[in-house]
Design brief:
The protein is built from 6 helices and 8 strands, in the order E-E-E-E-H-H-E-H-H-E-E-H-H-E. With about 160 residues, it is α+β, with helices and mostly antiparallel strands. Strand 6 and strand 7 form a beta hairpin. The protein is globular.
């Protein structure tokens, strides 16, 4: 048992790549890239909630799920949930951004909400944001004020 770092363990180096998002003492996320399927595997990095997902929830949870998803910008859209971390800790996350931008993602497997998410236009929009964040000379006002990046996307497929 060990804490994962940017160094990919030799036991899965052939299959997976990984990058660590460092949010200081309160937040850390490791994202994985499965090479063969070109899938990005994430926990709290991004999410989306669609009606197919909501329809599978117990009755009382449906309203709450829909309301929260709309409030945080992930209802029928893919939302980047870690933009605040990326903005606040830009310098320490340059390796993370470079590594993630180098992957050719075609699918995003998120642990929350509707998944998998087709990569295509969603991934291109996220890459644009990541590249903008790689410029550490200053924080642009739009990125500083945003809490999530809602990316219009085709309805994600259901499992």
């Amino acid at each position: 048992n060990e804490i994962l770092s940017d160094e990919v363990p030799s036991t899965w180096r052939r299959t997976l790549e990984q990058a660590v998002l460092d949010g200081g003492s309160t937040y850390r996320e490791v994202v994985f890239f499965h090479k063969r399927s070109k899938s990005l595997i994430v926990t709290d990095f991004c999410a989306t909630i669609n009606e197919d997902f909501i329809s599978q929830q117990p009755f009382l949870d449906k309203l709450a799920t829909r309301t929260v998803a709309r409030a945080i910008g992930i209802y029928e859209r893919v939302g980047l949930l870690v933009e605040g971390v990326l903005n606040r800790y830009r310098a320490r996350n340059q390796v993370f951004l470079q590594r993630v931008c180098s992957w050719e993602v075609t699918c995003i497997v998120a642990s929350h909400g509707s998944s998998p998410i087709e990569g295509g236009p969603v991934w291109e929009t996220l890459l644009g944001l990541f590249r903008r964040l790689q410029d550490t000379t200053g924080i642009d006002e739009e990125a500083q004020n945003a809490t999530t990046v809602a990316v219009a996307a085709e309805k994600p497929p259901t499992a």
